[in-house]
Amino acid sequence: MRLKSLLFSLLFLVGTHGFGQQQKPNVLLIISDDQGYHDLGSFGNKDILTPHLDQLAAEGVRLTNFYVTSSACTPSRSGLLTGRYPQRNGTFELFRNNMVNYGHQYTDYEYSVSPERILGTDLREIFISEVLKEGGYTNGYIGKWDLGQLKRYLPMQQGYDKYYGFANTGIDYFTHERYGSPSMIDGNRLSIADKGTYATDLFEREALEFINGSEGKPFFLTLAFNAPHSASNLDPEIKGTVQATEEYLKMYPKSNTKRGEKQRAYKAAITQMDQSIGTILERIKEMGLEENTLVIFLSDNGGMSLADNSPLRGGKAQFFEGGIRVPCLVKWPSKLEAGQTNDAFLTSLELFPMMVAAAGLELPEAIIYDGFDMLPVLQGKTDAERTEMFWEFRGDQAARVGDWKWVQSAKGNGLFDLKQDIGEQNDLSLEKPEILEELTRKFSEWKEEMENAAPRGPFKDF
Fold it and tell me: A Gene Ontology MF term for this entry (predicted)?
């Protein structure tokens, strides 16, 4: 905590970012869970109803060349909320109990001492919420946290004033249990008060309550839906499926196949999430806050087996484009022209610096950040600073340098020219050995930099 206090002192020695007396914008960061690249109307899908997100795209900027820091939930979220590669911030693996894969039901005691329960992001990391709180913001976190369940790791100890959600990787949408273990948290305590109510409805309720109570002070709300992630339930009829309410299931025709019914529920869960997002955005408009509210929407990683990641190859837990290139929308009426599409090479590492700059603040000087403020890129004022990006997870490796992409993984290897081959179908490793050598060399240099970075828990040995 002393280090954090020192960093905040450095932060405010440099003052504001030239905003003068201009009112700080509200910031709404919306995260969907395992949503496919093509699973939005504004990204070309004709089968899934997403009218409110499509309206958000029409009123803002649609980012088509946008990446996250991992193809799996936990490390992707750690990169997003710290502005640093997962390999630099220490949370580069999942906090997950694998015995559930084999049908094991944890007792209360077993769960209390299990890795999923006790691991968390290194407390020396500074979250975007902590920087904005020092800058005068009221902060709320609603939904999936996934960065540690013990009290010391929860959002209210990381600069958030309100927290309602779950802190592990997934729950049953109705019982809010993770494979039988109660998981919904209100503030800093487990709660079963809302058991039986669909999670998306609860997150909408809590988000509206937070926004309604924030008048007179700028707010930062992180709204992290669990939709359309599969339900975490050992019941074989539920496990691996996405849950939705009957009202939204009725919007899609029934199927005579089991997979068809699973896809029906997946689509319904997205549409119900879309409706909640629409309700929240309408409330912001009713309060007269729309013009000066920065809204960001993205998926945490590529879609799972029920998703449509086309025209990309692969999906969640892979480093082909379908696992790491995600839909992203940004709206800020007072700063961004509506109806734009931006295909610049951008990533979730750019969101932390952009939000800090939007608030009129500076990044803490003592911390290495791996992104930049991308607002001028979205405004068409500058080109993107990013020319390369690197990924590593469970032995799989990937690098993008310019339009070239290299993948080495259990699911396949190759060198691809994304400008000509966004679907990564034509491996050019043999035809372009010099480019392959350049990308693998740059990956090795990045890996060495990450290994030499100040060590962070919980996985590194120091």
Answer: arylsulfatase activity
CA angle 334, 270, 202 (to 5 degrees): 80
Residue 31's H or E segment, with its range, is strand 26-32
Alpha helices by DSSP H, listed for 190-327, are: 199-212, 246-249, 258-286, 321-324
> What are the sequence ranges of the domains in the chain?
2-387
Question: 120 — phi, psi (to 5°)?
Answer: -165, 165
Query: Are 427 and 415 contacting, i.e. CB atoms less than 8 angstroms apart?
Result: yes
Distance (Å, rounded) from C-alpha 326 to C-alpha 424? 16
Q: Given the structure tokens 């969101």, which residue do they identify?
A: 351
For 285-310, what is each residue's pLDDT tens digit?
A: 999 999 999 999 999 999 999 999 99
pLDDT at 20: 39
Q: Which residue has the tokens 């990533």?
A: 347
**Residue whose entry in the numeric block shows the structure tokens 């909408």:** 204
Cβ-in-10-Å burial (0-12, 13-18, 19+) of 213 comes to middle
Query: Which is the CATH superfamily of the domain at 2-387?
Result: Alkaline Phosphatase, subunit A (3.40.720.10)
Largest alpha-carbon pair distance within the chain? Answer: 64
Does the predicted model carry a pTM greater than 0.85? yes
* C-beta neighbour count of 323 within 10 angstroms: 31
283 Rama class: left (phi>0) / alpha (psi -120 to 50) / beta: alpha
